[in-house]
Amino acid sequence: MAAVVAAGVVRVGEQPLTVGDVVAVARHGVRVELDESALQAMASSRTVIDAAADDGVAHYGISTGFGALATTYIPRERRVQLQQSLVRSHAAGTGAEVEREVVRALMLLRLQTLATGRTGVRPATAAAYAALLDAGITPVVREYGSLGCSGDLAPLAHCALALMGEGDVRDADGRLTSAAEALAAAGLEPVTLLEKEGLALINGTDGMLGQLALALHDLEDLLQVADIAAAMSVEALLGTDAAFADDLMRLRPHPGQQASAANLRALLADSGVMASHRGPECTRVQDAYSLRCSPQVHGAARDTVDHARAVASRELSSAVDNPVVTADGRVESNGNFHGAPVAYVLDFLAIAVADLASISERRTDRSLDRTRNQGLPGFLAHEAGVDSGLMIAQYAAAGIVSELKRLAAPASVDSIPSSAMQEDHVSMGWAAARKLRRAVDGLARVLAVEVLAASRALDLRAPLQPSPATGAVAAAVREVAGGPGPDRFLSPEIEAVVDLVVSGELVRAAAGVTGPLQ
Questions:
Q1: Known catalytic residue at 344
Q2: 362-412 pLDDT tens trace
Q3: Of 24, 103, 145, 424, which residue is least crowded by CB atoms under 10 Å?
Q4: Cα 353 versus chain centre, distance
Q5: Which of the residues 60, 73, 129, 344 is marked catalytic?
């Protein structure tokens, strides 16, 4: 049975999870259940591990040390200590706490790999891990520690440590407490890890993949908000929509570009503002690039997201561990834990996000500049000179864009050897995920500033009427941020529009007129 959300449960089994499943468990606390077939698969592969543990041959992670110590044979009576020592030593993160939804995402994805039956973990261990998730117990994971090869070792080790009843966690109410106390309060028992289990709990790309899934979910809405913001700016600046014509888009058939242009056409349909200057007397032969090329830039970002989604889908279908138990019962070492495929697309997305924010900020700046905004007051101020209008809102957007450009520098081209040169090339995928997460937040804020400025500009175009779709968006903004007028405390208004952006309210307002946006 596929992993699906049904009746408030994500079923984890031998079929892949989806981005929606990850978001449901990580962000919304949906319960998880292990499929019966997964329990059977785990029990079957565990017999292989038990046999390998008894055969007197050195098997990596079962009867040997780890990393550069892979040739050190460990006798049977020391192997519980071996697994405990592995988890304790690898739970070496430092820095600020990682967000709860990120930790829950990586735990869910590790559980899914355990459930494939390719790791050799006992069914009872996987069930205990699922119970940790369902109890809302969130291990404290630190910002720094993962190199993204041998997977996200340190973040996953902090989670495995909590399963052992050690380390710090946040309970379901967010209270910081010890893992031992949280497990006891939830009626759960600490797990004593046997051969291979500690290694299986920490050897995956789950941290970077979980953050990729969350980013893909958030970018789906932000791409639509980018089209909404661009349409409002084109309209407010008395631009032309002629450049967005379908036949022009077909001359360069990138799917993202075509989808973005279709959104712009729908959003600008029946605009009184556009109609006011559409006659032969209009001198707007062609607009500035930030307006005219919006479908090309937004579309390229869309196509990049589609590529990242394809990579995420393949990774969500993977069983990442080392060694693995193959279907025919072999225990084989491999390099599938290397994070390069995920790290690359995390970096690609950071580049696309930076450019989306960059073109948005340029449209905002054009709206505020009285030499370029087609007759609107400077900075959209009530009384220029006395009032500064949205001058500093643009500064905020510009500051964010500058940071996003720095965050667009790829992490995946870096590598620092570790483990006495055994792990001599690493992906830095966790670092790529962390900077993308900050970049997505920045993009939402830059788009919010553009929407705020465009809404005020459209109000100042009265009595000309915006399109029904952009008018609906402007009305939603006006409810939380007010309209034109003398200067007032601006930060709360920006934050309120950010909330409209990230909650999906602006997309719903526009789609209520146009139908679903692409």
A1: no
A2: 999 999 999 999 999 999 999 988 999 999 999 999 999 999 999 999 999
A3: 424
A4: 12
A5: 60
